[in-house]
Amino acid sequence: MTDLSGREGQRLAALAQYKIVDTPPEEAFDEIAELAAAICEAPMAIVNLIADGRQFFKAEVGLGVREMPLDTSFCAQAILEEDFLLVPDAAADPRFACNPLVTGAPHLRFYAGAILKSPEGLPIGTLSVLDVRPRTLTGVQERAIRVLARQVMVQLEQRLATERAATSEARQGAIVDSAQDFAIIAMDLDGTIVEWSYGAERVLGWSEREAVGQSASLFFIDEDRAAGVPDREMQCALEEGRAIDERWHVRKGGARFWASGELSPLRDRVGQHVGFVKILRDRTEEHLAGIALRQAQERFQTIFDTVEAAFAIVQVKFDENDEPINYRFVEANPAFARQSGVDLRGKWVTEYAPDLEPFWFQIYGHVAKTGEPTNFENYAEAFQRWFDVRAVRVGDPADRQIAIIFNDVTARREAEERLRVSEASARENAERVQLALEAGAIIGTWHWDLPSDQFTVDDAFARTFGLDPALGRKGIPLAQITATVHPDDRRGLEEAIAEVIARGGPYAHQYRVRRCDGRYYWIEANGRVEHGRDGTPLSFPGVLIDVQERRTIEAERDRALADLRALNETLEQRVAQRTADLVEAEDALRQSQKVEAIGQLTGGVAHDFNNLLTVIRGSVDLLRRPGLSDDRRQRYIDAISDTADRATKLTNQLLAFARRQSLKPEVFDVTESVRTVSDMVRTLTGSRVKVSLRLPSEPCYIDADRSQFDTAIVNMAVNARDAMKGEGELILSVCTTSEMPAIRAHPATPGEFVAVSLTDSGPGIPADNIDRIFEPFFTTKGVGEGTGLGLSQVFGFVKQSGGGIIVTSEEGEGATFTLYLPRVEGTAGVPAAAGDNSLPLGEGACVLVVEDNAEVGMFATQALAELGYETVWAMDGRKALAELAAEAGRFDVVFSDVMMPGMSGIELGQEIARLYPALPVVLTSGYSEVLAQNGTHGFELVHKPYSIDTLSRALQKVSRRR
User: Fold this and answer.
1) DSSP 8-state code for residue 165
2) Which of 22, 211, 390, 713 sits CB 3.0–4.6 Å from 206 for a disulfide?
3) pLDDT tens-digit profile of 163-212?
4) Whole-angstrom Cα distance, residue 807 to residue 817?
5) Closest C-alpha among 47, 64, 40 to residue 133
């Protein structure tokens, strides 16, 4: 066998399916070969099939052989063509000129062949004609060969179909005969049996010879034949496609059996109805077992529904750790609801009892997993009941199902508990009586027959109350017994007796009784009321116990407690008074310290201002000397200007301490500002203090007064320098945070903040001082070394800016001051104002000056006149409004002080804005609580003391706006 390509393998497989190679000659194929030779007037014709390495002639004319090698074959070349191969002269055709069949016997010269193709188009051979002389074919002859080739394929296909049908029929017969447990019966249209399987013979008893030709009603019972059941089955099968039959049938000999059958129409290849086929199977055992099972189920259901015990099938649910977490009641009998008080069929237990005790999950889960049955009694809080439970696993262990049988035993458990309590009480009473008898505490016993209202008492009882012992043994009514009870206790006793008779059970009550000596003594009556089964009170036995001594001791104890309570109350009052005195003394001391601090502040400020005034006064005196050179004159003038700036800084520091400075908030980068001010800090701290910066790479913007921020940093740096005695390390750091932590009594504040920290390596701050360092005037420095305002300025600036400050310190470990200021988005720089075409400074402009201080007002008007302005001076707001009312159009700007009697400068500005919206207002102030709290209200502000240049720039700025 040669190796085959894919295409060649498919071709040989197509040929093999016909099973034609090496078969004997067949007349149908011989006739086609003879007809081809006759039509083409050729001496030779063959039906040639190309096998693996050889060619087989199914039919041949004129050759006398049935097989030839493939390597000398014309057909091997022909099957490579599409449909047909024509060789007029083989000797002249290079493909065949050297072929042994051409050069030698039989000396072939002519070949014509039509390809034999399978339905898939695969060439399996040829129908060929050959001649020993060169020639050709007419058109009719060529068409005839093509037609005859197709006939060869028709013959092959019919031969294949016939073989497949025979195989299928044999297979079906074998299948039918092998189904020995099934009776397979074929009938014609009238219901006459035409085929009878081997299984039918085994199931029904009749042989094929006995059954064929009989009516199918042969195996129906007499009742069904009389009712026309066989005909109805055939009609149902025709209408619905099949008829299912489950009923009694009859075997040969008359024995009955239960069969399950199905009748179906039988149709031929074209779908024509030609009969019926019925399949029967003996199901007698299953049918009888089913009947028995149904009867058992009915008996079980009856028991299931009527049994008093609750029964349920429970499916246990486990979590991913294989721990039981829930269970569902798959089935439950009617007693389940009666015993549990709720119907939970189909529900998870946690739907009803979400807080069910874990015990139930654990015990049921254990049974479901291990298969170990269990019995137990337990209380279920959600059901408010006690249950006696039996649990066993049922079904497939993988289903995790258990069966539980349980009873509500709550009544029994409660009865047992009552009995236990009663027995315990009886034991306790017996023990008490025994102890009382031994101690001599019992002074008598009684037995009261409740229906007859008769007391029988012992001799001790009678003697104690002066009764006749004989009468006590005979019987005494309740009224005679209670006659000796103290009037104040009689009603309480009657109520206690009525209550215990109504409920039954133990009784104990203390009251006072009069004895033979005429005095009242405390006693305690202990007894028990017994009820009949119908609840009727029957008897009330008991004892009397002397508790006089115990009550006396308790009274003494109560008096002692009252005296102690009074002593405690007095002590609390004394402590409260002492505490109040201490608080008052502490307040007086604190006030004294504040007065002392104010004195230090006053002395310090006076000292600083005297120094400043000395410079100013000296410079003025020198300026008055004649013959000064221009250089010296300028030097004295600069000294006066610098001294005024230092005085301004000192007053601003005082205002910051008071939190009364008017801030000028602006958006700026804290990182850059700290980097800039660090140079000043290095200068102030000196060379022996190492100043380090820890700054972020990204800008951190805040909206605050930049100069006050810088001042706060400097104040904290100087404070750190002094704490380190001029030597150590100071670290300035900046970072962002998402909240401001809790500070003193204020809770944490969420939001974006910038945190600025100064950490020094000094000795730290004592714990008793850390909460006081921001108090005004507080300082640890010596007299004259500081006023205690530096950190107050920091605190005031931070609070006015919407932030906070935290100090952390441990003695010997240095201190860290951290400012928290609200973070804002950075804004692009405001472009420089474009040049304007307004009048030159002072030319043609008139200023309304509003100032209550005569000296300042005179200075302002003179300064404005020097700048070229025309001025009108009003001493207060009312006069200013009067000037405007007279002729508002002549004024270009209003320049007003803020702090004035009557109407303030802010109120004046607001009124002018309402009456004269186009008229600009410039305010000036050295101190204003209103400005400190609420800002400038949109007005331009010039701080006192101001320079001529500052005033000129402010006026020019508002002039451009107009």
Assistant:
1) H
2) 211
3) 776 666 655 555 555 556 788 889 998 889 989 888 888 888 898 889 89
4) 5
5) 40
Average pLDDT over residues 795-803: 83
pLDDT, tens digit, for every residue of 903-942?
Answer: 888 899 999 999 998 899 999 887 655 554 555 677 888 8
Q: How far apart are CA 920 and CA 955, in angstroms?
A: 9
Could you tell me which residues come within 8 angstroms of residue 894 by beta carbon, excluding any fewer than 6 positions away? Answer: 847, 848, 850, 880, 884, 908, 909, 912, 919, 920, 921, 922
Q: 761-799: string of b/e by CB count within 10 Å (b at 16+)?
A: bbbbbeeeeeeebbbbbbbeeeeeebbbbbbbbbbbbbe
Question: Residue 643: is its pLDDT beyond 80?
Answer: no
Cβ–Cβ < 8 Å for 89, 126: no
- Whole-angstrom distance between the N-terminal and C-terminal Cα of the chain? 115
Tokens of 221: 């019972």
The H or E element that residue 120 is part of is none
Q: How far is CA 933 from CA 248, 662, 801, 802, 929, in A?
A: 110, 8, 11, 12, 6
- Torsion angle (degrees, nearest 10) of CA 151, 156, 157, 162: 130
DSSP state of 221: -
Residue 601 burial (CB count, 10 A): 19
* φ, ψ (nearest 5 deg) of residue 21: -65, 135
Q: Note the pLDDT of residue 177.
A: 53
Of 670, 736, 675, which Cα lies nearest the Cα of 705?
670
Per the CB < 8 A criterion, the answer to whether 764 and 811 are in contact is yes
Distances, alpha carbon 749 to alpha carbons 464, 702, 734, 805, in Å: 81, 17, 19, 13
Q: Could you tell me the two tokens for 816? A: 């860290």
Spatial contact of 59 and 47, defined as CB atoms under 8 Å apart? yes
Are 897 and 925 contacting, i.e. CB atoms less than 8 angstroms apart? Answer: yes
The DSSP code sequence of 418-458 is HHHHHHHHHHHHHHHHHHHHHHT-EEEEEEEETTTTEEEE-
Residue type, 582: L
DSSP 675-710: HHHHHHHHHHH-TTEEEEEE--SS--EEEEEHHHHH
Helices (H) and strands (E) in the chain, counts: 28, 33
- Helix ranges (H only) for 659-786 are 670-685, 706-723
Q: Are 869 and 847 in contact (CB under 8 A)?
A: yes
Quickly tell me which residue has 């203390």 as its tokens: 510
Q: Is 530 exposed, middle or buried (0-12, 13-18, 19+ CB in 10 A)?
A: middle
Letter for the amino acid at 855?
Answer: E
C-beta separation of 794 from 802 below 8 A: no
- Strands of 324-332's sheet in order across: 324-332, 310-318, 401-408, 385-394, 374-380
Gyration radius of the chain's alpha carbons: 64
Contacts 24+ apart (CB under 8 A), 86-94: 86/111, 86/112, 86/136, 86/137, 86/142, 87/111, 87/112, 88/134, 88/135, 88/136, 89/134, 91/134, 92/134
Q: Is the pLDDT of residue 669 over 90?
A: yes
The helix or strand, by DSSP H or E, that contains position 287, with its residue range, turns out to be helix 284-306
Beta bridge partners of 500: none
Contact 194, 200 (CB under 8 A): no
pTM for the whole thing? 0.31
- CA 393, 303, 367 angle in degrees (round to 5)? 10
